[in-house]
Amino acid sequence: MACFPQRAWSASGTPATCARASESCICGHVDGRGAASPSGWTAANVGTTSSRVGGDQTGVACVVGGCDGVQFRAMSDATRITHVPLRRARLAGTAPRLAMYALIAVLCVSGLGSIIRGHRTINETFVHQASGFDLAAAAYATEFARAYLTYQSGRPNVRTEALSQFVNATVDSEAGVATEGTQTVSWAEPVQEQTVAGLVKIITVAVQTSSTAAPQYLAVPVDRNGHGALAIADEPSFVGPPTIDNAYSAPNRQPVTNPSLTAMVTRVVTNYLSDDPQDLQADLIAGSQVTLPTVAMAVQHVTNVTWLRSLRVVEVDVTARGHAGATFSLAYFIGVVLRERWYATSISINPAST
Asked: DSSP secondary structure string, 43-73?
């Protein structure tokens, strides 16, 4: 590689030497015979830089003082120059650090929220998150309804004593009742549970008293403190009974057409009611939770076997005779699963459920 002044090319193609500063030069390869060709060469001024990529040319540089001191560095044919905005480069460099800061911020906020909420006890978690019927609250409300609606004018201390277990800062010893005369309670049962504003449970208790022919319905507000202890949250109220749909009709169901499935569920109901655990076990899938009725009955007829809204539960309608001779029409919901053959997974209820 060499640089020559443009003025120095002779007709034969033999170049002169480029030596003066700021002189316009042409740079390129010299072949083995000492001859040079300007074809494809790169023009450059002494004291500046110039390069060309492609073919068999190489990049060159001329410095002030003449082309005799020029140094050359070979450039790869695959070399590419990429321009990246400075802002993008800085952002790429700081992105991991920003992500780490964001994660730390989220963890700090989560920890602060946990501190503010405080530790939740097992009872509190169960009471506020469980979707099932609160049996303890229902029993508590029922006992309160009994004491609340039982009174005898000649013995007021009996009612006061019965209500003493329900007294708190909201409910006084008389529970807001000025009694007159005598009234007794023959039975009381919880019939409905609701939650007001997501906080207080309202337990509706049906109560049969000596003063009325029809039951009375008493709505009792019940709450739990942070440790799960029960309390009467406010004075009760008389309300109406739960709504009843006397025009209800069960939806049409598809009959089971598989003979082996029909035979299996028929055996299950028959062995279940006749108190035959050994034969029943043969049709139960492993791990099924089943307890037998306390009184045995004899199945007389299987009237219908239909699918119950899914392909996993079958309804079996039967007539069965009790030990005293009475005949009952019964409906059993049998959970089913297909393995190498059909098995039952449950019979109407889960006895292990709370």
From this structure: EEETTSEE---STT---EEEETTEEEEEEE-
CATH topology of domain 135-239: Nuclear Transport Factor 2; Chain: A, (3.10.450)
Length of the chain: 354
Name the architecture of domain 259-347: Roll (3.10)
Per-residue pLDDT of the chain (354 residues; tens, 9 = 90+): 555 555 544 444 445 444 444 445 555 544 444 444 444 444 444 444 444 434 444 444 444 444 444 444 545 555 566 666 767 767 777 777 778 888 888 777 766 665 555 544 333 333 344 456 789 999 999 999 999 999 988 888 889 899 999 999 988 888 888 888 899 999 999 999 998 877 789 999 999 999 999 999 999 999 998 888 999 999 999 999 999 999 999 888 899 999 999 999 999 999 999 999 999 999 999 999 999 999 999 999 999 999 987 789 999 999 999 988 999 999 999 999 999 999 999 999 988 876
The answer to whether the beta carbons of residues 286 and 335 sit under 8 Å apart is no
Q: Tokens standing for 288?
A: 């099924």
For the sheet containing 42-45, what is the strand order?
2-5, 24-28, 42-45
What pTM was computed for the model?
Answer: 0.54
Decide: residue 124, CB within 10 A, 0-12 exposed, 13-18 middle, 19+ buried.
middle
Pick from 69, 51, 49, 32: nearest CA to 41: 51
Q: Which of 58, 25, 61, 27 is nearest to 41 (CA)?
A: 27
Q: Could you tell me whether strands 66-72 and 151-152 are parallel, antiparallel, or unpaired per DSSP bridges?
A: unpaired
Report the chain's C-alpha Rg in angstroms. Answer: 47
Say if CB 60 and CB 51 are below 8 A apart: yes
**Two structure tokens written together for 176:** 């807001």
Where in the chain are the domains? 2-72, 135-239, 259-347
